[in-house]
């Protein structure tokens, strides 16, 4: 089924976004996301292929679209204001917290 779906966007597959939802405790065992990752390739993960974690057992299509839209919109804000396209993918923290993480990473 997914092989047939991949034919729909044709050469525009590299411009296609996809999202899969998962309850937060099962994020490592998401079959749909794993299959999509095989078709999209590793470079698309967290760029055009998004795993949306939720605390709910169900997510409506409109909730999924809203989440994906927010993520993509936040990336533009992050690029404009912080000079980092992916910075807003994560919850922002104060400067002291960020400094501590950078220090620990070193």
Detail the topology: elements first, then pairings.
Layout: H1 2-7, E1 18-23, H2 31-40, E2 49-54, H3 61-82, H4 95-105
Parallel strand pairs: 1-2
Question: How would you describe what is shown here?
Answer:
The chain is mainly alpha-helical and 106 residues long. The protein has two domains: 1-58, no CATH class; 60-106, no CATH class. 46% of the residues lie in helices and 11% in strands. It contains four helices and two strands, in the order αβαβαα. Strands 1-2 form a two-stranded parallel ribbon. The chain starts with a helix and ends with a helix. The model has no long low-confidence stretch (mean pLDDT 82).
Report the average pLDDT across residues.
82
Number of strands: 2
Strand content: 5-15%
Across the major sheet, the strand order is 1-2
How many domains comprise the coordinates?
2
Order of helices and strands: HEHEHH
Structural class: mainly alpha
Largest sheet: number of strands, sense, barrel closure: 2 strands, parallel
Using the alpha-carbon principal axes, give the shape: globular
Distance between the termini: 46 Å
**Radius of gyration of CA atoms, rounded to a whole number:** 16 Å
Oligomerization: single chain
Unreliable spans: none
Percent helix, as a range, is: 40-55%
Note the total helix count: 4
């Amino acid at each position: 089924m997914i092989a047939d779906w991949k034919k729909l966007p044709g050469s525009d597959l590299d411009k296609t976004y996809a999202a899969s939802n998962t309850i937060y405790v099962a994020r490592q065992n998401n079959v749909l996301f794993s299959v999509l990752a095989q078709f999209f390739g590793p470079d698309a993960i967290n760029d055009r292929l998004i795993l949306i974690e939720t605390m709910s057992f169900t997510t409506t299509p409109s909730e999924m679209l809203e989440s994906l839209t927010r993520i993509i919109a936040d990336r533009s804000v992050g690029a404009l204001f912080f000079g980092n396209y992916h910075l807003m993918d994560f919850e922002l923290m104060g400067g002291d917290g960020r400094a501590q993480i950078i220090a620990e990473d070193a």
